[in-house]
Structures are given as C-alpha cells and as structure tokens.
Amino acid sequence: MKKYIIDTDLYIELLRTGQYHDIIAEIYARETPNIYFSSVVAQELLSGVISEDGRKNVETILRPFERVGRVVTPGHTIWKETGEILSMLRRQKPNLKTKLSQMINDALIAMSARSIGATVISLNSSDFEAIKSVRNFSYITVA
Fold first, then answer.
1. In whole angstroms, what separates CA 143 from the centre of its chain?
2. pTM of the model
3. Are 91 and 102 in contact (CB under 8 A)?
4. What does the pLDDT look like over 1-12, one tens digit per residue?
5. 46, 58, 77, 140: which is deepest, by most CB within 10 A?
C-alpha cells in the first residue's frame, strides 16, 4: 500500500485558489486512506495565516487527518537525521549554505515520510532533490 505526504506548497495552492492541483485531486479520489499529514506542514500553513477565516480553512484541511490518526510528527531521531543531512549538504554543496535554514522543514518532511514509507508530493523539486542527493527517500514533483 502506497502512502503519501503532501507538501505545504500544494495545500497553499488549494487555500489560495480553492482547487486541488490535478495530481492531488487524483490522489485524494483514489488514495484518501493512504494520505498522511505532516505536523511540519501544519506548522507552515498555520504560520502563514493572517485571518480567522484562514485559520479555519487550515483546520478544515487538517482536522480529518487528526481524527483518524494519520498525522506524522518528527521525533528526536528525525531531527538528528535532519541535522546530519543539512551538515552533509553544507559540506557537499557549498552553494546551498545560505539556503540551508530554509530547507529545515523540507528535510523534516522528507525524513518523516521516509520513516513511514511514504512518498512526498511537492511543487518544489530543487530542495527535495538536494536532500535526496545525501539521503534517499521517495518524492514526486508535480508541475
């Protein structure tokens, strides 16, 4: 059974436009019981909220996952692994040095997905490709 974690960028698209990206609509239609929600994505979405309506919209997306216990939260091991990944990227890809602090959440999402055998679905190929260059995990980039 495949498992999926949808990255923040695709939920932001949903919140802004009111419509799922085509691939997300397809996965929700076919694979709803196999979709998990990342606590990191919840944090990213809630931190961008500027109105009560915005908070309610995020909660509407998140609540069903909380009810059925399909929320993935990075524990100590994943935080350590994320630190190791960022350290390796800093050494191996010096051009990313100034971007590493922005990649923390993506690394947490990637390693959380890996810990449950899930595939990350994102619009962001560059960060996830860099992470995958030092630690294997499954992801799909959509356009």
1. 16
2. 0.90
3. no
4. 789 999 999 888
5. 58
What is the CB-side half-sphere exposure of residue 88 using CA atoms within 13 A? 13
| Tens-place pLDDT, residues 99-115 | 888 899 999 999 999 99
List, in order, residues 6 or more apart from 6 with CB less than 8 Å away: 24, 27, 35, 37, 41, 120, 121, 122
What's the CA gap between 81 and 111, in Å, rounded?
8
Tokens of 15: 């919140």
Domain count, the chain: 1
Residue 52 token pair: 């009560």
Domain region containing 15: 3-141
- Which amino acid is present at 82? T
